[in-house]
């Protein structure tokens, strides 16, 4: 009786693991498309934000209100990401680009989205939408 129960539990566990593995692999390929594929936006401009240890390549980035822009994140050293909550923008090594349409003019703070060390709190820039 114990042997049959052990075999049945092993089969159930194997089925559960195979089901989890197949859904993970299909989600991984879909995550590279980001929200641009979901909304079918075509970017008219491109902005590349590059991060190194405790700084971004520029202090200010300029965008135009209402113009679709593809924002691409590049990480040259360390482990970083970018976060702009007002624009619903979060990029990192896994999701490195996204197409957005800035809906309102203003100044928005860009911060590092990943705790990267002692200089993390000083790692910021601004996006100015005109």
Key terms:
130 residues, alpha+beta, five-stranded mixed beta sheet, four-stranded mixed beta sheet, 2 helices, 9 strands
State the helicity in percent bands.
25-40%
Strand content: 25-35%
Shape summary: elongated
- Low-confidence residue ranges: 21-38
Q: Report how far the terminal alpha carbons are from each other.
A: 74 Å
Please identify the structural class as seen in this structure: alpha+beta
How many helices in DSSP terms? 2
Biggest beta-sheet profile:
5 strands, mixed
Mean pLDDT: 79
Q: Compute the gyration radius: what is it?
A: 21 Å
Query: What is the H/E order?
Result: HHEEEEEEEEE
The number of E-state strands comes to 9
- Strand order, sheet with most strands: 3-9-8-5-6
How would you explain this protein's 3D organization?
This protein is α+β, with helices and mostly antiparallel strands. It has helices spanning 2-31, 34-39; strands at residues 45-52, 55-56, 60-63, 69-75, 82-84, 89-91, 97-100, 106-112, 124-129. The relative contact order is 0.19. It contains two helices and nine strands, in the order H-H-E-E-E-E-E-E-E-E-E. The longest helix has 30 residues, at 2-31. The model is unreliable at 21-38 (pLDDT under 50). The radius of gyration is 21 Å and the shape is elongated. The chain has a five-stranded mixed beta sheet, with no helix packed on it. A four-stranded mixed beta sheet has the order 2-1-4-7. Helix content is 28%, strand content 34%. The N and C termini lie far apart (74 Å).
């Amino acid at each position: 009786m114990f042997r049959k129960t052990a075999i049945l539990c092993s089969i159930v566990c194997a089925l559960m693991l195979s089901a989890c593995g197949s859904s993970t692999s299909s989600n991984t390929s879909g995550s590279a498309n980001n929200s641009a594929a979901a909304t079918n936006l075509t970017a008219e401009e491109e902005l590349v934000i590059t991060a190194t240890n405790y700084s971004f390549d520029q202090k200010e980035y300029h965008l135009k209100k209402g113009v679709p822009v593809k924002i691409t994140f590049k990480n040259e050293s360390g482990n970083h990401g970018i976060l702009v909550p007002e624009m619903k923008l979060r990029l990192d090594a896994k999701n490195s680009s996204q197409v957005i349409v800035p809906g309102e003019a203003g100044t928005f703070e860009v911060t590092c989205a990943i705790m990267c060390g002692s200089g993390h709190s000083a790692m910021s820039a601004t996006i100015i939408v005109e």
